[in-house]
Design brief:
13% strand, 4 strands, disordered N terminus, 141 residues
Length: 141
């Protein structure tokens, strides 16, 4: 289809069916079931890309019919909740450094973190900055 042209009803129906399909994500051994349309809700992210590629995505396993990611399963609970609810909350038992790495992997932003969770997450950043400054002071001498 040419840029700027209107998709035909057939094209729109195919796209709608693709986004209505059921998807199983295996993240660190924990399975999550969702719809492609849920993953497509946040454009520019890793899971939105998966929603559009579907079986063509490199993580798809045709034998198990699921997508496998060797990532932190506990942190992913917060990630998938964000796609479902538009609220990014952080499990208080997850180290901020791990969660920051997960945000980067999934293409999410720190600014998406809800205010109620920001205090706990920002403490990690403050502690990391303090430790870096201490290291710089001791190593620099």
């Amino acid at each position: 289809m040419k840029a700027g042209s209107v998709p035909s009803p057939v094209d729109m129906n195919v796209n709608r069916k693709r986004l209505d399909c059921h998807i199983t994500l295996n993240v660190g051994g924990t399975r999550h079931e969702t719809m492609a349309s849920t993953l497509a809700r946040i454009p520019g992210t890793r899971l939105a890309l998966l929603a559009h590629l579907l079986e063509a995505d490199e993580t798809y396993d045709p034998v198990s019919k699921e997508y496998f990611f060797d990532r932190n399963a506990v942190a992913f609970n917060s990630v998938i909740h964000f796609y479902r609810s538009d609220e990014l909350h952080i499990d208080q038992n997850i180290c901020g450094n791990i969660f920051q790495s997960e945000l980067e992997n999934w293409g999410l932003k720190e600014s998406d973190i809800e205010p109620c969770c920001w205090g706990t997450y920002s403490k990690y950043k403050d502690h990391k900055d303090t430790l870096t400054a201490l290291d710089d002071n001791f190593v620099g001498k």
